[in-house]
């Protein structure tokens, strides 16, 4: 994995200290003999220590179900599969799942197929030592997957990962799906906790921690760094807590006892790369604005620069008289010789549902999977180019191909932006 110079600079900032061997020791006693008990809306764990979770029947139910799922899969090995381009919410929650699972003698590998190109994501992994690995399709095919007894989807439902179909092909069963996005597909798993009403998957995992599935200890460096990652994920998916709800604030309050503010600040201070600034410049130059929607195609991007697209959308939506920004481009993976149209939506319009808007605009593939979806204030889409991938050595052909896709995407978006009778945009 390559890190830009800005991350190298911030890595010199003082952190909480280097991890010691004791930081990674987990007490592997049989959790079946340590019952989780609740009393008057307050959670106690094992020895009766206070955890401080409000009386919430759904949280209690889901936490108990997850506890029982872990017990049923003790001593297994699992894959935690993230979306191809994981964000702080996904990365932090995968780490939390891994730490919880260790208590049940379950070993987990956190994997993603795409890249970490957003500077804050790179800084998060580098500065915390978050154990995520990039596995391309070729990497996956060369792995001996027989050692895995199950896989887990966190902050996604399998529609945004290239790895899921391959893993399913070899017969690895799905153990758990934990997400806060709207339902994307009909997947059956031993444990299922998808709550679109929750602003961040980090909030869901913090509730698991409050319930007692893992007792955070501020003297354990790994716990402090995971809490910091969860705080970053929660903060990121709630737009710096500006779109947070009561349960998000409660989760943040709980994490505040354990996270490292200096480490989080170092992660957030990661600078934008020149390539990201170039994509933002392209989006400003190419945008069209209609009915307070700003739509911009940015052409071809390298696979490693994919996260410049959501960053451009984040920037464009701050423009005066714009309530919704859509930025998209063709992302090219030279190693895999694949191309995919990647797009991001950001909105401040309370009556616009990003999930509904994107699904209405781009529809589904032949297997019934939507090309995109969203959550409150944000969404994204990915459209594989399949047979039309490649051939960009011929500049005239590459230009023609981009013009066709650019026109098609704009046409689909403008059909909703300038509707004659469209309930999505009605006031």
Walk me through what this model shows.
The chain is α/β, with parallel strands linked by helices and 427 residues long. It folds into 2 domains: 5-268, Alpha-Beta Complex (inorganic pyrophosphatase (n-terminal core)); 274-417, Diaminopimelate Epimerase, Chain A, domain 1. Helices cover 37% and strands 19% of the residues. It has helices spanning 5-10, 57-72, 88-102, 119-128, 137-142, 163-169, 201-211, 221-237, 246-255, 261-268, 274-286, 308-316, 354-362, 395-417, and strands at 36-39, 42-45, 49-50, 77-81, 107-112, 132-134, 150-154, 174-179, 191-194, 288-290, 293-302, 324-333, 338-347, 372-375, 378-384. The strands form 3 sheets. It has a 6-stranded parallel β-sheet with strand order 6-5-4-7-8-9, with helices on both faces. The protein has a 6-stranded mixed β-sheet with strand order 10-11-12-13-15-14, sandwiched between helices. A 3-stranded antiparallel β-sheet has the order 1-2-3, with no helix packed on it. Helix 7 packs across helix 9 and helix 8 (221-237) packs antiparallel against helix 9 (246-255). The longest helix is centred in the last third of the chain and has 23 residues, at 395-417. The chain is globular. The N and C termini lie far apart (47 Å). Residues 1-35, 37-54 and 421-427 have low confidence and may be disordered.
Alpha carbon gyration radius: 22 Å
How many structural domains are formed by the residues?
A: 2
Helix content: 25-40%
Q: Enumerate the strands of the largest sheet in spatial order, edge to edge or round the barrel.
A: 6-5-4-7-8-9
**What's the β-strand tally?**
15
What is the third-level CATH name, the topology of the largest domain?
Answer: inorganic pyrophosphatase (n-terminal core)
Category by helix and strand content = alpha/beta
CATH architecture of the largest domain: Alpha-Beta Complex
Task: Detail the poorly predicted runs.
Answer: 1-35, 37-54, 421-427
Global outline = globular
Strand count, sense and closure of the main sheet?
6 strands, parallel
InterPro entries: DDH_dom, DHH_sf, Oligoribo/pAp-PDE_c-di-AMP_PDE
Domain DDH: 80-233
Biased composition (Polar residues): 1-14
Protein name: Bifunctional oligoribonuclease/PAP phosphatase NrnA
